Amino acid sequence: MPSITWGIVQGRKEKLVSRVIICDYLKSIGIVPDELQDLELPSTVEIMRERVDFLQKLGLTIDDINEYPLMLGYSVRKNVIPVLAYLERIGIERSRLGEFVKVYPQCLHASVVVELVPVVKFLRGLDVEKDDIGSVLMKYPELLGFKLEGTMSTSVAYLVNIGVNPRDIGPMVTQYPYLLGMRVGTMIKPFVEYLVSLGLPKKVVARMLERRVYILGYDLEETVKLNVNCLLSFGISREALPSVIAQYPQILDLPLKAKLSSQQYFFNLKLKIGPDGFARVIERMPQIVSLHQHVILKPVEFLLGRGFSVEDVAKMIIKCPQLVALQVGVMKNSYYFFKSDMCRPMKELVAFPDYFTYSLESRIKPRYERLQGKGIKCSLAWFLNCSDQRFEERLYGDYMEPESSGPSFSMGGKLEMLGSDIVSEEEEESDDETLYRRTVSL
């Protein structure tokens, strides 16, 4: 029986004539019909015109159609409309349907029930929120063409196997759906194993991926390995590499040689910090490679204006690079409290520049007042560089705990806190947890 789509039943001769007429029409509007030779075309030029008009109203141009002319073989009523209606129903805005089809025109001949619905159910099963399905597919429309038992399942299984929390898979897919299209053997596994070879435990790598899964898209051979070698060439110690990467994974994908060269020259010229000192700064705060130089100068100028020498400021920045990222207003308040209320010599700030990184209202003032009330005299580090629980232990202890220069970062074992022999059972952690906690705190 004749159908709405194909018009009337035609014989072989009539079909050939119709094909010639339709191809001539397509050529007349700029569409190259060469790829349609093996495709069954509609019986009349009117139906083909209807398809072209529909696609153009959707937002596609003639050039877009020429990119994938096979879309002209899909029935508007049987294929295109049902697919578009479903895409709109799962969260893709009608105004962006044309954009979606441009990227993945193959979706127009997909079966809604057999092909599209299972993929959406799979995403929901990964804990992708219902309201995020549309945005996930807009980022990566090709997901609709993947087989569930193929790359998508194996990539998720591998990530969970290395320690990624299954509950974080959904947010990771929402942030970076391309991970579902990455092959484990050629992309994900080599990347993870390379980071592990640098000294990063798998558990730390898993935590990094949970928060910044997009790093899986970095080119391992052309970018990541070159940047690691670049860091080493600028004096970053191999032992510090894991800490640098864990603190700032984005450093693996930057134009690093140019950035490091520029910042090293700036630190040497303006701050009088040589290459070795610059390397120690990067080890402690790798984000500095991306910090604008005018931002760095503001806290430096503030310190110089308070009477610190250039040499002292250089020492302070090497000890505590976070200084160059602080707001001057915050530093002013802390400095004036230090001078007017605490009445301490400036050399204490040179010895412990971390003072500026603590909150004046929630840590410095309350703790200082407690010390005053008990008549205790101590260094800045002794009463600031510790948790609230440890501060209470120090405050009411019958001993003065040895001074500590801060945590020592060691990839080979547990993080050792100097002068912290008394550790409660609740504080015991695995080596990987200790490393991760330290990198997050940094």
From TrEMBL:
GO molecular function, one term: nucleic acid binding
Domain of life: Eukaryota
UniProt main location, coarse: plastid
GO biological process terms, semicolon-separated: developmental process; DNA-templated transcription termination; RNA splicing
Any Pfam family the entry gives: mTERF
Gene3D superfamilies in alphabetical order: Transcription termination factor 3, mitochondrial (1.25.70.10)
UniProt-annotated location(s): Plastid, Chloroplast
Keyword list, A-Z: Chloroplast, Plastid, Transcription, Transcription regulation, Transcription termination, Transit peptide
Composition-biased stretches (Acidic residues): 423-433
Annotated GO CC locations: chloroplast
Region (Disordered): 421-442
Family annotation (InterPro entries): MTERF (IPR003690), MTERF_sf (IPR038538)
Ranges in coiled-coil conformation: none
Family stated for the protein in its record: Belongs to the mTERF family.
Protein known as: Transcription termination factor MTERF4, chloroplastic
Organism encoding this protein: Anisodus tanguticus
